Amino acid sequence: MRIAIDARLVYYTQAGISQYIKRLVESLAELDDQTEYLILQSRKHRAPLVQRPNFKRIPIWTPCHHRLEQWTLRFEISPLDIDVLHSPDFIPPFRGNFKSVITVHDLAFLLYPHFLTKESARYYGQIDQAVRRTDHIIAVSEATKRDLMQRLGVPENKVTVIYEASSPQYRPLPAQEARSYVQAKFNLADDYVLFVSTIEPRKNVPGLLQAFRQLLDSYRVKVKLVLAGGRGWLFDEVFATVGRLNLTEHVYFLGRVETEDLPYLYNAARLLVHPSFYEGFGLPPLEAMACGTPVIVSNVSALPEVVGDAGLMVDPQNISELAVGMYRLLTDEALRSEMIHKGLARAACFSWEKAARETLEVYRKVSQSK
Questions:
Q1: Distances (CA, A) of 18 to 7, 23, 76, 204, 210
Q2: Helix axes 352-368, 17-31, angle to 10 degrees
Q3: Least confident of 31-40, 109-118, 310-319, 339-348
Q4: Which segments of the chain does DSSP mark as H helices, in order?
Q5: Which of 64, 30, 47, 6 minimizes the C-alpha distance to 167?
Q6: Does residue 235 register a pLDDT over 80?
Q7: pLDDT band at 111, cuts 50/70/90?
Q8: CA gap 289, 267 in Å, rounded
Q9: How far does Cα 228 stand from its chain's mean position?
Q10: Which of 157, 244, 282, 347 is deepest in the core (most CB within 10 A)?
């Protein structure tokens, strides 16, 4: 087989789908030395994602999310004579002489269209034709598969669920080492509650801020709130809420942090809170659990599927419930210990090696289909 993987997005961002692409490519390289892989990277991204004899970097001029990318990318790759093109960012080019696989991470843009900018709505609005044109779809959770079937009418046999995983770097570290690192790098000396994700409306950051204000006022807990993640879109309400609730001295915005810093931030945190209105998978809670950090997540979409009974579940609309959950994990040592042990066991159930193996099976199945 000759497989092309669209990895252009890795040049533009380190969050979300870019991490999926990097981990998948790295894991395929460890697993498979027979298949020929063409890794489509931005021409500005000069370093190959992996260095293996059967992996070749292909420089691509077409930028991500360009309004003409479905045409121009098709023309760029047509001479490559590929068998299967995998589009992890889910919008494939118009059909050429190859089979198509896409990964759909979530359908938040259909469920919460008011959370989108006009440009985002234009790009994500292509999902209907994308799921029709592609030969097979990888969904990152059963929740996303259900959404594809119910919202877009995708046949069940056209979708394979393949879970993501945390990377090996996410593991328990000595407590003093983690605390010293975050103090030196981020000037974080106090106990803190951690949030890790791009700041965008569906992440429910204003709700988290309201719950944190209630935690400070009602339970008198001395703790900071640390938010690690770049600014996505429609984030003005977040910063307005900080001012309105007089939280400026209690909340730290780190912005986008390097992936090598995240294990230390997770390990030094008292807990991770992930109160999203919707997630197609939910990688930060899994990474936190792998580090031995207890988690609170919303009881919606794919989050219960990922976390199981290894974290506290809360209604993302219920501010008091979220505040009580934080208080419990900050003060109840028996509960903390239980969640830490369950979290480590739960995180071990997910593996990039398994994800790569199952993805390779999809490539083989699609390449052999008529």
A1: 8, 9, 21, 22, 31
A2: 80
A3: 109-118
A4: 9-12, 17-31, 69-77, 108-111, 118-124, 127-133, 142-152, 175-186, 205-219, 236-244, 262-268, 283-290, 303-307, 319-331, 333-347, 352-368
A5: 30
A6: no
A7: confident
A8: 10
A9: 13
A10: 282
H or E element in which residue 99 lies: strand 99-104
Q: For 329-348, give the DSSP string.
A: HHH-HHHHHHHHHHHHHHHT
240: its two tokens: 């307005």
Amino acid letter at 15?
A: A
Please state, as a whole number, how many other Cβ atoms lie within 10 Å of the Cβ of residue 114: 7
Task: For residues 289 and 309, give the distance between their C-alpha atoms in angstroms, rounded to a whole number.
Answer: 12
Beta bridge partners of 101: 86, 136
pTM, rounded to two decimals: 0.92
- Amino acid (1-letter code) at residue 300: V
Q: Determine the Cα–Cα distance for residues 222 and 212; give it in Å rounded to an integer.
A: 11
Task: Give every CB contact of residue 225 below 8 A, 6+ residues apart in sequence.
Answer: 192, 193, 195, 208, 209, 212, 247, 250, 251, 252
Tell me how crowded residue 74 is: count the other CB atoms within 10 A of its CB.
Answer: 17
Give CA–CA dist 13/191, Å, rounded. Answer: 29
Judged on CB neighbours under 10 Å (0-12, 13-18, 19+), 119 is exposed
**Residue 4: Cβ within 10 Å count:** 22
Whether residue 310 contacts residue 346, with contact meaning beta carbons closer than 8 Å, is answered with yes
Angle at the Cα of 357 (from 354 to 358), degrees rounded to 5?
85
Question: For a pLDDT cut of 70, what percent of the chain falls above it?
Answer: 99
